[in-house]
Amino acid sequence: MLRIDCPWCGPRDETEFRYGGQADVFYPEDPSSLDDAAWAEYVFVRGNPKGWFAERWVHVAGCRRWFNTERHTVTYEFREAAP
Amino acid sequence: MRFVFDGREHIAEPGDTLAAALLRNGVRIVATSLYAGRPRGVFGIGAEEPNAYVHVDSGGGETMLRATQVEVYDGLRARSLAGKGDLGTEPDTARYDKTHAHCDVLVVGAGPAGLAAALAAGASGARVILADEQPALGGGLLGARALLDGAPAADWLAAAAARLAAMPEVRVLPRTTVTGYHDHNYLTAVERRADCLADPPPHMARQRLWHIRARQVVLAAGAHERPIAFADNDRPGVMLAGAAASYAWRHGVLPGRRAVVFGAHDGALVAARDLADAGVEVAALADVRDGSVVVGTEADADGVLTAALIAPLGADGRPAGAPERVGCDLLAVSGGWDPAVHLCSQSGGRLAWSDEVAAFVPATSAQQERSVGAARGTFDLAAALAEGSDAGAQAAEATGFQGSGAELPTVESVPMDRQSPADERPFGAGRALAGRPPAAFFCVEPADEAAAGRVFVDLQRDATLRDLRRAVGAGMTSSEHVKRYTTIGTAADQGRTSGVLAVGLLANVLGRSMTDVGTTTYRPPYTPMSFALLAGRDRGRLADPERITALHAWHEARGAPFEDVGQWKRPWYFPQPGETGQPQDTMEQAVLRECRAAREDVAAMDASTLGKIELQGADVGEFLDRIYTGVFSALKVGRCKYGVMCAADGMVLDDGTVSRLSEGRWLMTTTTGNAGVVLDWLEEWLQTEWPSLDVRCTSVTEQWATVALVGPRSREVLAGLAPDLDVSNESFRFMDFREAEVAGLPARVFRISFSGELAYEINTPSWYGLALWQAVMAAGVTPYGTETMHVLRAEKGFVIVGQETDGTVTPQDLGMGWAVSKKKPDFVGKRSHQRADTARAGRKQLVGLLPDDARTVLAEGAQLVTGPPPTPPTPTHGHVTSSYRSAALERPFALAMVIDGAARHGETLYAVDGDQVTPVTVVEPVRYDKEGARRDG
């Protein structure tokens, strides 16, 4: 069970959180201007690195707020979380 | 203490394990092996035991327990097993608890190193948990002969226990096995509380599952003795040497009268000395390092050991020359000590072979842990104490406490040159320990190939040297492959006495190093744990929370069966006297009656479980325009609108209505099972993409009770209940919302219909819910449940998200393009509706189905094919999503998702449900009141 630092509530057990996937995947400014490939990139394609990965979590069973953090996908170590 | 084993009563002494008590009573055969059916005796003294697995019938009963770890109590009843357990047929009625704990330092194992670590960490003021699987603290010091501070070890143990008990931040957990080392220093442990008691108090949980988050962990789990394999090494009487000596000195039980000791390291000599000093005649000592090995054994008619065959070892590492026969009833074997590296390995730490101690030892740490004492290959008592103390102080310092180490005792070992009282031969001059290095020796090669099938590598699996050679012959070179091919290490003992043997044999055959071959992966749990413990109290009704509405008691009193929708209990139907037969017959009669009432008269349903989310703020309209496929910003105060929301991939996520309560207050309804998902969805977009929007949302599902009043007479009933409300069709239009007093209660009334009939959804604060419902019922309204609701909506072709849809269905697939705005520049999912795959022909579309025989109610989930009889392979053309018997249509009907279904009305398909094939006609999904004439009553 991971121990995750919520930037508002402090360290809590993983069961209080829901995973939100890769961070910094922004909703496109104008989806209609994108071709199918570019739109599919936004909807379906995510990184899967071995190493540090910027990702989102939401403290669903706590303050219900979203935040970004970095996690090492091999060691599961976390780096400083940001709202 | 009296106990019964295999139907025979025996006497035990306090502190006996079942294994000790059986040896005390001369019971040599305690089990039969799983595949070979050979008799087996007690082999070890702890968790490493491969043979003596028993079924305990007394207490709550439990199977596949190690006799070496079962504490005897007065009245214990147990029986031997033939290699596998007996699953009970009765439910386990014992109570199992779970508990959570945080600590600065968790010390696993209360042997000398662990005790020293706990004393050092505890002295610093750190919060410490010390867990040990045995009933008493001490580990390897229990029954040890060394003098600590000039006194027996038991004195020092008692003093150490007293010092720990006096430290307020130290918690000592005996009978507690740490079974798992998970991510971020999260460990699980099993505490056995009532298993050792003849008559446990009723309040006491049988076992407790600990979830421990530790900032630092000290692993002092000790070591397991490793045997050496040779022909017929499985006979009762063959035992680990250190275990044999411990039975003598800890329990006062002699596991034999005349012993042969066979070993590859100094520990075997120590065991031989201890056995001799305890009164066992040590008839011979075979030390691999002196070129002497046991090549086989002899047994009596029962299969019990009578002699060991000892031969010299040739230069090629194989036995050479004729063996000497030495009569014995105990063959004490010790190939070395394997540090208990299980938890270290589970935590991600790597292991490496150490030639110095001839064992795998921890090499790297992946988490905040350190191994000490025998668990890292430090077998010397004084060194283990010092190591433990240092580690405890360091761990405490790492958590911010000032550690100074524990006060350690002086250690005085028993000299080796003592003459054996029984036989002076093995302990003559020159037999001093002198720190000779251990030999990495795993197996005595048998003279002939046939005997290789009797060289047992894994006693519990009956897996032999021949099996291992076969695996290598088949091309296996990885220890993981060999494990799975031979099953060595896969039994309940997880290969504690066989795993390293297999690695050694493999390394020899392949000519590779021990580290290179490596052990197989260690996984939790360290020792087996019961499913009842894992479930704890989360069983039956406590497995998942039950949510009930404010009207629940009324439904129960009326005898309604309940349907689970998410966590909600919803009344399914309301049977009346006269509606009898099998449950499905009762339901059919009740549902047909309820449907008729709703279509022809007036009926009401408890709709409180519908998800309700209130949204407030200046930008709610804009937000809803982005979230829903339709336009909501133009919705006027007092009006309601149906909406569909899609995920970014364009697939339907949920549907419901939105009502504008006032300029800046909106109320959204969601599907019952999806309320949480939708609230999370809204929050995600608001927080992560559009934080500038002035919108706040909160769940109000539990705050309101909702009564759906349905049917041509519903207006008349509402008028009677709400005399001040103008219910005329002109004033209170379809999709209007009004605040009113209904039955004298404050209420919000929405003219929303999920049945096609004239209908109202009356909401009142939950605490008035029952009063509202009772007032509605008093007006002569028929109550109906979820099944009737389903039939009514399906007759109208209304979909239920999650029933017609499955995450691969667009609004267009459902024929609901009308709910998707063409004018809005964007909404979540819009761009995906233009993707080639979502716009293509050949997608499944919503249709109605009419079974041709007008009798069969199709099975939901049945596949639809084009020709009878279906001969595989038959491509599917779709599947049935909803299927009911309709009172209004006077026949069964169904909804289905069919490939290109919108263009296939009139076509015949065949619904396949197991052996039953039913021809059906594809029709449009709306089967009732297509013109919508009934909506206004």
CATH class descriptor name of chain A: Alpha Beta
Mean pLDDT of chain A: 94
Low-confidence stretches of chain A: none
Structural class of chain B: alpha+beta
Structural class of chain A, please?
mainly beta
What order do the helices and strands come in, and which of them pair?
The complex is a heterodimer of chains A (83) and B (937).
Chain A: E1 3-6, E2 10-13, E3 18-22, H1 36-44, E4 52-58, E5 66-72, E6 78-82
Antiparallel strand pairs in A: 1-2, 3-4, 4-5, 5-6
Chain B: E1 2-5, E2 8-11, H1 18-24, E3 31-32, E4 39-40, E5 53-56, E6 62-66, E7 76-80, E8 96-108, H2 112-123, E9 128-131, E10 147-148, E11 151-152, H3 153-165, E12 170-173, E13 176-182, E14 186-192, E15 207-219, E16 223-226, E17 238-240, H4 241-251, E18 258-263, H5 266-278, E19 281-287, E20 292-299, E21 305-312, E22 324-327, E23 330-334, E24 336-339, H6 342-346, E25 351-354, E26 359-362, E27 369-371, H7 381-398, E28 411-412, H8 449-452, E29 456-458, E30 463-464, H9 465-473, H10 479-486, H11 499-510, H12 514-517, H13 531-535, H14 552-557, E31 562-565, E32 568-571, H15 583-600, E33 603-606, E34 611-616, H16 620-627, E35 640-646, E36 652-662, E37 665-670, H17 675-688, E38 696-699, E39 704-710, H18 714-721, E40 737-742, E41 745-750, E42 759-765, H19 769-778, E43 782-783, H20 786-795, H21 830-833, H22 836-839, E44 844-851, E45 863-865, E46 878-886, E47 891-899, E48 908-913, E49 916-923
Parallel strand pairs in B: 1-7, 8-9, 8-15, 9-12, 15-27, 17-23, 18-19, 18-23, 33-43
Antiparallel strand pairs in B: 1-2, 3-4, 5-6, 5-7, 10-11, 10-28, 13-14, 14-15, 16-24, 20-21, 21-22, 25-26, 29-30, 31-32, 33-39, 34-37, 34-38, 35-36, 36-37, 39-42, 40-41, 41-42, 44-47, 44-49, 45-46, 45-48, 46-47, 48-49
Helix pairs in contact in B: 2-7, 4-5, 9-10, 15-20
Describe the structure.
- The complex is a heterodimer of chains A (83) and B (937).
- A four-stranded antiparallel beta sheet of chain A has the order 3-4-5-6, with no helix packed on it.
- Chain A is mainly β.
- Chain A is 11% helix and 39% strand.
- In chain A, strand 5 and strand 6 form a beta hairpin.
- Chain A has a single domain (1-25, 50-83), classed as Folate-binding fold (2-Layer Sandwich).
- Chain A has one helix at residues 36-44, and strands at 3-6, 10-13, 18-22, 52-58, 66-72, 78-82.
- The model of chain A has no long low-confidence stretch (mean pLDDT 94).
- Chain B is of the alpha+beta class and 937 residues long.
- Chain B is built from 22 helices and 49 strands.
- The radius of gyration of chain B is 38 Å and the shape is elongated.
- The relative contact order of chain B is 0.07.
- The interface between A and B is medium-sized, with 26 and 24 residues.
